Amino acid sequence: MGLRVKFNVVLALVFAAGMAVSAWVSYELLQRNAKHEVLRNAGLMMEAALSIRGYTVSQVKPHLEYQLAEKFLPQTVPAYAATETFNTLRKKYPDYSYKEATLNPTNPRNRAVEWEADVVNAFRNQAELKEFTGERQTPTGPMLYIARPIKIANAACLACHSVPSAAPASMVKLYGDSNGFGWKHQEIIGAQMVSVPMALPIKNANDAFMVFMGSLAAIFLVTFIVLNVMLSQMILKPITRMSAAADKISTGDFNVPEFQAGGKDEISVLGTSFNRMRRSLQKALKLIER
Question: In a designed cystine with 142, which of 32, 124, 163, 198 is the match (CB 3.0 to 4.6 A)?
Fold first, then answer.
């Protein structure tokens, strides 16, 4: 196996190991950053929902309370206001969703489906759990969701949700007396759920990964070519010339020109030593011939 082949094998192994490590590190980092981006978006949506709820309670409901005795206005309900706002948002961004998933809701559209009920029950079984995140597969791709418990912390809420007879007649007329009752103070009755698509951030992360690995491969190829050219010009050619000269000198042919050793690197030093050995050998043979 020649020197060039050995050098290239070692170089290829080193670059292959480097690219494998770089691929693993960069892929994990890009995927983690993509997930963090989705979490930030979900967290922003959650805070927006909380702001809408607070605004409804403090600035909308007080101005409409006098009408509630005659007609129930769902616009005064914080959950309704937040849900409707995000339903409007979904007209432009259909993959983003917000839902106040409830086990026993007043409004049937808020009823928790199977996977949402599992999250709600996790909050009910672990009182110390304040937030829950997870991923799930949907027909449109992977979704990341963030959930926070809905807890009856304000006893005033039970005025509408304890028993049908205590609830506003206008509300019972609108939604009936079968759902949304029997809630208890400090009970977790549901969860705020924000779902954000992961397909685009993951695609962007994968695209960035491919660009990075492509650039790294291009750098490797250029480096491989440059190092081979340097190896050939600075090491292999001088050694090949010295080897050919040594073969001729070993047969007594001293017509070979001396090696041009200009410089102070190892090859030049070797060439100078080779020339000195050649001259010494030539002198020694002349002395023997006499």
Answer: 198
Q: Would you kindly state where each structural domain of the chain is located, as residue ranges?
A: 3-10+206-289, 26-202
The arithmetic mean of pLDDT across residues 121-125, rounded, is: 92
State the burial class of residue 32 (Cβ atoms within 10 Å of its Cβ: 0-12, 13-18, 19+).
exposed
Residue 25 has pLDDT above 80, yes or no: yes
Within 8 A by CB and 6+ apart from 240, the residues are: none
Tokens linked to 214: 């492509």
HSE (side-chain half, CA atoms, 13 Å) at 12? 7
Cut 0.85: pTM above it: no
Report the Cα 236 to chain-centroid distance in Å. 46
CB-count exposure of residue 145 (10 Å: 0-12, 13-18, 19+): buried
Give the CATH class of 26-202.
alpha beta
Phi, psi of 98 (to 5 degrees): -135, 135
Distance from C-alpha of 110 to C-alpha of 145, rounded to nearest angstrom:
16
Classify 12 as helix, strand or coil. Answer: helix
Extract the tokens encoding 125.
């079984």
For range 151-176, the mean pLDDT = 79
The three-class DSSP label of residue 103 is: coil
Question: CA dist 13 to 4, 26, 161, Å?
Answer: 14, 20, 70
